[in-house]
Automatic annotation (TrEMBL), chain A:
Keywords: ATP-binding, Ligase, Nucleotide-binding, Protein biosynthesis, Transferase. The keyword Ubl conjugation does not apply. The gene is gatC. PANTHER family: GLUTAMYL-TRNA(GLN) AMIDOTRANSFERASE SUBUNIT C, MITOCHONDRIAL (PTHR15004:SF0). This is Aspartyl/glutamyl-tRNA(Asn/Gln) amidotransferase subunit C. Its EC number is 6.3.5.-. Allows the formation of correctly charged Asn-tRNA(Asn) or Gln-tRNA(Gln) through the transamidation of misacylated Asp-tRNA(Asn) or Glu-tRNA(Gln) in organisms which lack either or both of asparaginyl-tRNA or glutaminyl-tRNA synthetases. The reaction takes place in the presence of glutamine and ATP through an activated phospho-Asp-tRNA(Asn) or phospho-Glu-tRNA(Gln). Heterotrimer of A, B and C subunits. InterPro entries: Asp/Glu-ADT_sf_sub_c, GatC. It catalyses: L-glutamyl-tRNA(Gln) + L-glutamine + ATP + H2O = L-glutaminyl-tRNA(Gln) + L-glutamate + ADP + phosphate + H(+); L-aspartyl-tRNA(Asn) + L-glutamine + ATP + H2O = L-asparaginyl-tRNA(Asn) + L-glutamate + ADP + phosphate + 2 H(+).
UniProtKB/TrEMBL annotation, chain B:
Keywords: ATP-binding, Ligase, Nucleotide-binding, Protein biosynthesis, Transferase. This is Aspartyl/glutamyl-tRNA(Asn/Gln) amidotransferase subunit B. PANTHER family: GLUTAMYL-TRNA GLN AMIDOTRANSFERASE SUBUNIT B MITOCHONDRIAL AND PROKARYOTIC PET112-RELATED, GLUTAMYL-TRNA(GLN) AMIDOTRANSFERASE SUBUNIT B, MITOCHONDRIAL. GO terms for biological process: glutaminyl-tRNAGln biosynthesis via transamidation; translation.
């Protein structure tokens, strides 16, 4: 399987990564190599094997529904770039 | 051409837990911004989500109530997208293996018939935070208190054929989650939200048309209006030779229109994958049995029982079982009134509901208790007061004047049932209106109402109506 330049651009956009045009052919080659490497697994007969959801063969532990966290807003907001009136401020987003 | 509307609803019900789905932060509504957003909710490095047991219990309860399959093993997945109110860059949701699949909900239509609506699936996920775009120059303010609040997303089959059916389904679901006590159903606070997938197709065609997804439908009324307006838009578009584009549209309740939320026309690509931070969720049969034992009487069963046990009409039973609080209140009134079912139904649906509406109160805040209303109905039944006077007593009770017996006593409202006293009042009225008596005797029967009214006025509404009628007719026949 080989990825096109357009594929690489679209993946980069979805991951909000900024990449240089000149680097795209190399990314495409590297990513395609990874996919081809993994594709060898396709040769294994997996009939009757359930898809694995997690490498650990265990079930999720559950916690009791209790409030155990106290308000630490001040501490958390001390490392935020901008806050106002208790809100985190971010560059304006509007759809 | 004749068109057919096809609708499927996605409803997000906020589960009524104390703490969040994956953290121990509080879910209480209305707290100061970010005071209930802990390290897990903020997506700080190194934190791990731990699933809330009550969230699982509530999802199972819902699944059992709609006769669905509860998955013995379900999986949490990451839904990846970037938005500032989603700090991790992904929402933990369920994708391929949801906790609940293939249920059914019966809805009642306006003509009294019923229809089964399929529920494709219900899955667990976390809510995002809230963004505020006004008030901050060039910036958006983010409150993450809501981030991590547990949601059950309930997805219907595209079985609904009109806005009215969609509303009936939504109301039914709203009533059900409140009966089950898994969601408070508060739509103003966003505890129960609805998106609608709407398409049209020529009647008789098998394939579905292209659908639009409507967002921001936060009341029953808006759901109906938004769907109707969107159906109209799609039909106009198709009939003038255009095509419907698959997109998300926002309903604007002020302009009563839907408009496209243009996000560069790119197809959503959420790149779901199983969340490595969470192990698969195993639900044992013993746990399911435990939850099953806690299921209350469901709205449909209750409605049927009300019809059988209290001999109510289908309509009355439907109204009285629309919420568990209403049904419980009604049954308490019946008990307290010594079994006056029909009268209890009329008063609970009439004066009582009217007073609640007028003052914007919930049943739990009512100043009139079932004991008070029950006693009032007993006084009507034993002829102490007439139905008309009872309305006055009810109002006094509502205003905090105490029990009906005290009010009747204090205000001297006891019905006059003494034949002699009523006759005396009749004589007085007839003597004062000789002209009308003449006309009545001349065949103008309608004047009977006039005399009844006059005597009632004289008695300040306290004369027993049945006795009054009987005595009056006798007197006039003399």
């Amino acid at each position: 399987m080989s990825l096109s330049s357009a594929d690489v651009q679209s993946i980069a956009h979805l991951a909000r990564l900024s990449i240089e045009d000149q680097d795209i052919p190399e990314y495409a080659r590297n990513l395609s190599d990874i996919l081809n490497f993994v594709e060898q697994l396709g040769k294994v007969d997996t009939k009757g094997v359930d898809p694995m959801a997690h490498p650990l063969d265990m079930a999720q532990r559950l916690r009791v529904d209790e409030v155990s966290e106290s308000d630490q807003r001040e501490l958390f907001q001390s490392i935020a770039p901008a806050t106002e009136a208790g809100l985190y401020l971010v560059p304006r987003v509007i759809e | 051409m004749e068109w057919e509307t096809v609708i499927g609803l996605e409803i997000h019900a906020q589960l009524a837990t104390k703490s969040k789905i994956f953290s121990g932060a509080s879910t209480a509504y209305g707290a100061a911004p970010n005071t209930q957003a802990c390290a897990v909710d903020l997506g700080l490095p190194g934190v791990l989500p731990v699933l809330n047991k009550d969230v699982v219990r509530m999802a199972v309860k819902f699944g059992l109530a709609i006769g669905a399959k509860v998955a013995p093993r379900s999986v949490f997945a990451r839904k990846n997208y970037f938005y500032p109110d989603l700090p991790k860059g992904y929402q933990i949701s369920q994708y391929e293996l949801p906790v609940v699949e293939q249920g059914m909900l019966e809805i009642e239509l306006e003509d009294g018939s019923t229809k089964n609506v399929g529920v494709t699936r219900a899955h667990l996920e976390e809510d995002a935070g809230k963004s505020m775009h006004e008030d901050f120059e060039g910036m958006s303010g983010i409150d993450l208190n809501r981030a991590g609040t547990p949601l059950l997303e309930i997805v219907s089959e595209p079985d609904l054929r009109s806005a009215k059916e969609a509303v009936a389904y939504m109301k039914k679901l709203h009533s059900l989650v409140r009966y089950l006590e898994i969601c408070d159903g508060n739509m103003q606070e966003g505890s129960f939200r609805c998106d609608a997938n709407v398409s049209v197709r020529p009647k008789g065609q098998k394939e579905f048309g292209t659908r639009a997804e409507l967002k921001n439908l936060n009341s029953f009324r808006f759901v109906e209006r938004a769907i109707n307006i969107e159906v109209e838009r799609q039909i106009d578009l198709l009939e003038s030779g255009g095509t419907v584009v698959q997109e998300t549209r926002l309903y604007d309740s002020v302009k009563n229109e839907t408009r496209s939320m243009r996000t560069k026309e790119e197809a959503n690509d959420y790149r779901y994958f199983p969340d490595p931070d969470l192990l698969p969720l195993d639900i044992e049969p013993a746990f399911i049995d435990q939850v099953r034992a806690t299921l209350p009487e469901l709205p449909d069963e209750k409605r049927r029982r009300f019809i059988d046990e209290y001999k109510l009409s289908v309509y009355d039973a439907g109204v009285l079982t629309s919420s568990r609080e209403m049904a419980d209140f009604f049954e308490a009134v019946v008990r307290e009134s010594g079994g006056q079912a029909k009268m209890s139904a009329n008063w609970v649906m009439g004066d009582f509901s009217g007073a609640l509406n007028k003052d914007g109160l919930e049943i739990g805040d009512s100043p009139v208790t079932p004991t008070m209303l029950g006693q009032l109905l007993q006084r009507i039944a034993d002829n102490t007061i007439s139905g008309k006077i009872a309305k006055e007593v009810f109002e006094a009770m509502w205003n905090g004047e105490g029990m009906p017996d005290d009010i009747i006593e204090k205000r001297g409202l006891k019905q006059v049932t003494d034949t002699g006293a009523i006759e005396a009042m009749i004589d007085e009225v007839l003597a004062a209106n000789p002209g009308q008596v003449e006309q009545y005797k001349g065949g103008k029967d309608k004047l009977l109402g006039f005399f009844v009214g006059q005597v009632m006025k004289l008695s300040k509404g306290k004369a027993n109506p049945a006795q009054l009628n009987e005595l009056l007719k006798k007197k006039l026949a003399e």
